[in-house]
Amino acid sequence: MITLIDGLSLGSIYALIALGYTMVYGIAKMLNFAHGDIIMVGAYAIMVTLAATVSPIAAIVAAIVICTILGILVEKLAYKPLRGASPLAVLITAIGVSYFLQGLAQLVFGSQPKPVGSAWKLPAIEAINSLGITTAAAVTLVCGIIIMIALTLFINCTRTGSAMLAVSEDRGAAILMGVNVNKIISITFAIGSALAAFAGMFYLFQIPNTEPTLGAMPGITAFTAAVIGGIGSIPGAMVGGVLLGVIEKFCLASPLAPYTVAIKFSLLILILLVKPTGLLGKVVREKV
Questions:
Q1: Alpha-helix residue ranges (DSSP H) falling in the chain
Q2: Cβ contacts of residue 132 below 8 Å, gap of 6+?
Q3: Candidate from 12-16, 128-132, 283-287 with smallest mean pLDDT
Q4: pLDDT at residue 286, rounded to an integer
Q5: What's the CA gap between 101 and 62, in Å, rounded?
Q6: Predicted local distance difference test score (pLDDT) of residue 188
Q7: Is residue 281 situated within a structural domain?
């Protein structure tokens, strides 16, 4: 039971990151490999704000604002000029942005891990801890579920969400219907980056240290989760993230611990062999 809760908690972090990948791909048709590094930026924003204000609330707000603005700037400066370019050019640019953010963080903060600070610590909740479940795992799981439900409602029940679905389905038809595609893509990057800030916040609850490569492995794992669930599918990203989180925690609690990474990526290969579009992905027919 405890391992399952921990797995669901970790899975909710992966799901939040995977949602950023899958939303950008579904709407802009590009893979933003710099997305994992947005998590790192959010973690450093929390660390710096905590050092200045000793207020966790201010740190969380600062991380969300900074990550959202950064996501919009990355889209405007790096990806918008490549609109219509080859997928390879966009992919190389995304990798370049990722290394740029990591290098910048290393120049500013150094390459060694830095503790976030004693103020970034959740108070113990007796009713939860008595079950052997950490407060961090419980808070991460509950908040992650709330955020994912809110995002689903936003996509399905708002005018902007409908526009995002329209652009994802057929960009040309959406333009003819008066949808501002550039604005929708910017909103998508903003939402995805805000989700990355939340993921970074939850990650720091469990491991209160940050470094320039903080978002590298969680980003790759979350991308794997998005592909497993079906890249471009929001429910698929959630399912893939939770699935990988549960598998990782159960592997770490067993003799299979040294092979955890291999098992996760073997699952990716197996699912793609059986269902190339992912668990909840749809087959897209190319019009000629």
A1: 2-28, 35-53, 56-74, 87-109, 126-129, 135-157, 159-169, 171-176, 181-206, 216-229, 234-252, 260-274
A2: 2
A3: 283-287
A4: 54
A5: 18
A6: 92
A7: no
Distance of CA 183 to CAs 14, 17, 80, Å? Answer: 27, 22, 11
Q: Is 238 within the bounds of a domain?
A: yes
Spell out the residues 6+ positions from residue 280 whose beta carbon is closer than 8 angstroms to its own: 229, 230, 233, 235, 236, 239
Q: Residue 228's closest CA among 217, 216, 219, 236?
A: 236
Q: pLDDT digits over 131-176, tens only?
A: 777 888 888 888 888 998 899 899 989 999 999 989 888 888 888 8
Q: How far apart are CA 265 and CA 280, in angstroms?
A: 18
State the chain's mean pLDDT as an integer: 88
Average confidence (pLDDT) over 230-254:
89
Per-residue pLDDT, 48: 93
Q: Rounded to an integer, what distance in angstroms lies between the CA atom of residue 78 and that of residue 158? A: 29
Number of domains in the chain: 1
The percent of residues in the chain predicted with pLDDT above 70, rounded, is 97
279 assigned to some structural domain? no
Its domain, for residue 34, covers 2-274
Is 287 among the domain residues?
no
Whichever domain contains 65, its CATH number is: 1.10.3470.10
